[in-house]
Amino acid sequence: MTTTASTPAYDKSGEPLVRAVNVTKAFHGNQVLKGIDLSVNRGQVVVLLGPSGSGKTTFLRCINQLETIDGGRIWVDGDLMGYVDKGGTLHRLTDKAIAAQRRDIGMCFQRFNLFPHKTVLQNVMEAPTQVKGVSKDQARSRGLELLERVGLKDKPAAYPAQLSGGQQQRVAIARALAMDPKLMLFDEPTSALDPELVGEVLAVMKELAQSGMTMIVVTHEMGFAREVADEVVFMDGGVVVEQGPPDEVIVNPKQQRTKNFLRRMRQEEEQLAAATGHLALADIPLDDTTDDDVTVDPTRAIDDGGPDGAVPPTS
Ligand SMILES: Nc1ncnc2c1ncn2[C@@H]1O[C@H](COP(=O)(O)OP(=O)(O)OP(=O)(O)O)[C@@H](O)[C@H]1O
Ligand SMILES: [Mg+2]
């Protein structure tokens, strides 16, 4: 499909919140997305897995219009992202209309990008007051509520530099939630954190998922994926190789490419586990009969590294 093909009629009710159809994207002739199809139902959590360079970040950036797509369609809550369809021909929306679409999508990156010269509360209040015209009083009380929700109720006056990485990432989540997004996109939100800070961020994300937020999460945290994801999507080379419930894709992957990726992840996690005592995928049995270089010690206790035991600290 190209961006000039006709668009089927789209009925919002009962449809997925996110529907991507045959999305393609190239950078200078490098075809990064080769026809991605993905549907995410309302309230669902989808974890995107895949090796470096497989196009995960690019796909998230296409969903929220930080990149324009070359072909295909992406709808969020029934709105065709970035374009208006006039009689089968797509016309690019104005920057203002695109900005309005983007307002409904929250994004959390590996780097938190908080304003360093603003307090935690000012960071959380910034977008609602500046972009949505919410009154300062309203934004403040909502901001304080959100800080409590992410376990930072006694940090409103702190500056980002005074917080740990995990705390900063939780501020970034609160900041995104302050815009009341329909959809949250997370791009490796814990991969820049020290291992001991990962759990507190995953715990906040898990609570968000349980509250019914629709989420697409790029992460290597397999414990989180197994516990929280409704669906796991494995991407490689710009295509979706395999998708399904976490226990199928992570424990019983069907495709060799998925098995190879999980084996590599498992080895990395074993190394990490040896260094930190944090066990994750290394203890999840992988039904991979071709796997001859990984042994799992069945006597080891299973701790899937999920956020279960990790409660966000209140300070
Ligand atoms: N703005 C850009 N200009 C040129 N090439 C880009 C750009 N953004 C991404 N790419 C290329 O697109 C490919 C996919 O990148 P992307 O960041 O989407 O991968 P990823 O799956 O998120 O990888 P990682 O796990 O390392 O974050 C890579 O080859 C990358 O170099
Ligand atoms: Mg990426």
Could you spell the SSE succession in H and E letters? EEEHEEEEHEHHHEHEHEEHH
| Unique bound compounds | adenosine-5'-triphosphate, magnesium ion
Q: What is the 3D shape?
A: globular
Q: What gyration radius follows from the Cα positions, in whole Å?
A: 20 Å
Distance between the termini: 51 Å
For the secondary structure, the number of strands is 12
State the low-pLDDT regions, or none: 1-8, 288-315
Bin the helical content.
25-40%
- What percent strand? 15-25%
Please state how the strands of the largest beta sheet are arranged side by side.
8-9-10-3-11-12
SS element count, helices = 9
Mean pLDDT score: 86
Could you say which structural class the secondary elements and strand pairing correspond to? alpha/beta
* Oligomeric state: single chain
Largest sheet: 6 strands, mixed
Give me a quick take on this structure.
Helix content is 34%, strand content 22%. By secondary structure, the protein is α/β, with parallel strands linked by helices.
